[in-house]
């Protein structure tokens, strides 16, 4: 579940982004997106800890794609600091969000075979 | 498909064609450590390209040469293409090497081939292209950048260290394909699903 923990941390970073980039060019165009995306990521990644909702982190994957695309297309490149932040955070989130929650264990479908094989 | 059934033989840790397990932690941790070193170096250079720091340390060619490379036309053009500095993109790629290197069990070469292939795509083609770009940039500009060269060399070492696991995973998938001749079975196994054919192949060495 370390991947979900990192996602929550990146979600927190997005929540404070408006304060970090306060006063930079066109920050007003990115504030709402950063806060909403950060909140969604924190909620989705936290819900993933509950087994019935273990796939909720896939929402984080969508938010990551949205962030990277919004940062890329919202301004002429290279965009303002807030846009570059969205691209960087979006790409970083993709690395983690694509991984399953129990990525360090043998996949569930294989566990029975593995145990029986080892006798 | 149903639950896996017991079969004769046991799962061996060695991954053909190798006589060792390339997914073992002893194989993967050095890759992750080296990738993190490259990540920090690339992040440091990205901080300069973002002008969050004033200069870049270079004990061999001097700060001016390194800054000439990081501020070159090629670098600015890449920033317009990608939307972020090329060093930041490199940092994300190196972080990916470390993250994909850490994820997965010590038997991921056969149980999560998709993850090993993703790891391979991040390390091998991207690492190779990144190393070639650094060398071309250096040749074209005529200026040398010590930290760029360090990251390029690290990329090549990572390729050398990572290819055995990727190769083992691809060979496993090829054996599953030859045995089943079914794209559905291959896809199931690729994405980490169970299939008796793959189970039999996994026990065969």
List the main descriptive attributes of the protein structure presented here.
heterodimer, A: 119 residues, mainly alpha, 0% strand, B: 205 residues, de novo design (two linked rop proteins)
Question: Biggest interface in this structure?
Answer: A-B, 31 and 38 residues
CATH topology of the domain at 25-165 in chain B: de novo design (two linked rop proteins)
Number of strands of chain A: 0
Percent helix among the residues of chain A? 55-70%
Radius of gyration of chain A, rounded?
17 Å
Helix-residue proportion of chain B:
55-70%
Number of helices of chain B: 9
How big a fraction of the residues of chain B is strand? Answer: under 5%
Rg of chain B computed from alpha carbons, rounded to a whole number of angstroms: 21 Å
User: What integer is the average pLDDT of chain A?
Assistant: 91
The unreliable regions of chain A are none
Number of strands of chain B: 0
Which structural class is indicated by helix and strand composition of chain B?
mainly alpha
Q: Given the C-alpha coordinates, what overall shape of chain A results?
A: elongated
**Assembly state:** heterodimer
Quick synopsis:
The complex is a heterodimer of chains A (119) and B (205). Chain A has one domain.
Describe the structure.
The complex is a heterodimer of chains A (119) and B (205). Chain A is mostly helical and 119 residues long. Chain A has one domain (2-102). Chain A has helices at residues 2-20, 28-47, 57-73, 81-97, 108-117. The two termini of chain A are 29 Å apart. The mean pLDDT of chain A is 91. Chain B is an all-alpha fold. Chain B has a domain at 25-165: de novo design (two linked rop proteins) (Up-down Bundle). Chain B has 9 helices and no strands. Chain B has helices at 25-49, 63-70, 73-82, 86-102, 108-111, 113-141, 146-180, 183-190, 196-202. In chain B, helix 1 (25-49) runs antiparallel to helix 4, helix 1 (25-49) packs across helix 7 and helix 4 (86-102) packs antiparallel against helix 6. Mean pLDDT of chain B is 88; it is low at 1-10. At the A-B interface, helix 4 and helix 5 of A face helix 3 and helix 4 of B.
